[in-house]
Design a protein that fits this description.
54 residues; mainly alpha; 3 helices; 0% strand; flat
């Protein structure tokens, strides 16, 4: 079964509905948004650090 179909089936299930609702709540949280922005900036090279990792 293709992966997309499995994901659709999961999201249609009660557990998938709970997971989706939790993800939506987390996405609206300003602290979670800030964490995501910091993580993305690190991947994009905009971390603003010294560039030295030990």
């Amino acid at each position: 079964m293709p992966v997309v179909n499995r994901i659709k089936r999961y999201l249609a299930s009660p557990q998938g509905q709970r997971t989706r609702a939790k993800a939506q709540r987390m996405a609206r949280d300003p602290r979670t948004q800030a964490k995501a922005r910091r993580l993305l900036s690190r991947f994009r090279g905009g971390g603003g650090g010294t560039g030295r990792r030990h």
